[in-house]
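TL;DR need structure tokens for one chain.
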Amino acid sequence: MSEDEELSHLVGTILDATLDPALWTPVLAGISQFVNGQAGGLLSKDAVSKAGTAHYHYGVDPHYMQIYVETYFRFDPTATLPFFDVGQIVCTRDLVPSDEFRQGRFYQEWVRPQGWLDAAQVVLEKSVTSCSYLAIVRDQTAGMVDDEMRRRLRFVIPHVRRAILIGRAIDLGRYEAATFADTLGGLKVGVFLVDADGWVVHSNPAGREMLRADDFFRSGDRLVARDEQVNRTLREIFAAANDAGDAIGAQGIAVPLLGADGGRYVAHALPLMSGERRRAGIAYAAAAALFVQKASLDTPSAMETMAKLYKLTPSELRVLAAVSEVGGVSAVAEAVGIAEATVKTHLQHLFAKTGTNRQIDLVKLVAAHASPLR
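>> reply
TL;DR here they are.
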């Protein structure tokens, strides 16, 4: 199988996983194989609860996955991953210096016993307090994350992101649209299944409310946007979806909508014409699914703001976060899983970059940069 054929098959299975979450494990296996990795996972981290969750994983021993969730996620250098851009490929050495990583508890007690060497991580989506990400692990035989792995991952990432965004809103058990809570405000999403001409064959309650409002969509049985340019774009998307959906990726899945009151909305499109998606489409004579939600304010966290303002490294950010939470060199070393001498070195760098002299000053600085919307 050529690279193009392998990628085409993989993209199809990724989109099928939006309708059947059980497919994520074989999807992760396929991604790992495509980029020469040995294990992978879809994970999330929450800065408020400090919890790490492995939603789906492949190639990881269940025992090690359990102790990761219970203990070792606290030492994982991916704690600073939310400060990287969505879609950016980040390897371990981008998060923490190699020597520091290999001396820490996470490597010594969790990574090395499994024979792993490096990992590529990609933020799929993030909010002020949390992020979800894809991680693909390499062992000693595959070697470090290299340019070829990055090249292949770039082909896959947009499709995984699309699947994550729209997969929440589909209920495979009934092949009907569902609502889901927006991570920043619990806002309900309007869901429409439409045919190639834009006729609505199914909509959820939130979607029907949007049509009744007769705002950015005209009220009726056909999905028609009041903005002519937006309407033309939607017509093209629905028609492309009917022709197997390949063109939707090229045109982009996000369409901006503007309400009469100036409120901003965004619509995400998904073709329903392949594998499980084709069966769902047949059930409703639908060619595409459209998910519409109000655009939310995504204010950068204090740490992300400080990282950009003071040009802090990922290692310095980890120490800064720990200082603001637990305080004290010994406590920070224990929380981050590095030596006290290393913590002191990072503190000196933090003092120099921020113009502070004490740990309490760093804590105050973090508080000063925190958004009142958090």
